Amino acid sequence: MIFYFSGTGNTRWVARQLSKYTQDNLYFIPEELERAPHTYTLKENEPIAFVFPVYAWGPPKIVMQFIKQLNIANSKNAYTYAVCTCGDDMGRTRQILAKELKKKDWQLDALFYLNMPDCYISLPGFDVDKPEERMQKLEQAPHIVAHIAKVLQQRPKRHYEEKPGPLPRIKSYVLRPLFNRLLMSDRLFHATNDCIGCKKCSKVCPVHNITMYAQKPQWNGNCTGCLACYHNCPKKAVQYGKRTKGKGQYLHDNYVNTNE
Question: Would the pTM of this model clear 0.85, i.e. be above it?
Fold first, then answer.
């Protein structure tokens, strides 16, 4: 079974491609959280997989929350792996995930990463990739997923293909907690006068955090930081304070046929 989280489509595409190779069922984490408490049952020799984007050099809070409440029958000694997407480097993502899985008596047997087009734009100096870099990442992605699927056929133990980057401990254990405490918030989100009340932002929010009031979106304090609302707005009316003004948008579906 493959549990995944995605905001702008990068990780959803990876999860779907992996599912085609492995024939394992897909479970979208926000939808599964709505079903909680719920117990899953592994089939014989079925692996447990987590596919998610790296947020602030670690797993997204929603993924960690899901793992905490996750119950899987017949999971003793189950092969467990993760695939992470990131725009750049991933810090100590593996170690943070492995520590949480250990609390469930699961061993993180393998981890892989894919550099996918960057979509984080909520801080100064951060923007979407330039077209050349974006297309290069997208062209490489199918080959990397095929490689991952081939490696997984062997069920290797302690197999980690990762990109910690420089100063991974500082990024993951100092900057990440600060980011989650101070910046993982929707208080700066607002809609400009360009908003046409189309409700797209509300519809695409994976955790139903946006409601419409007087034909304008309101954010309700349960933000995952996925930026789906910003990147899906057809008028670029969704903004995060002044930090996103003039920056680009990115949705995986706009550049790749996800049915491939």
Answer: yes
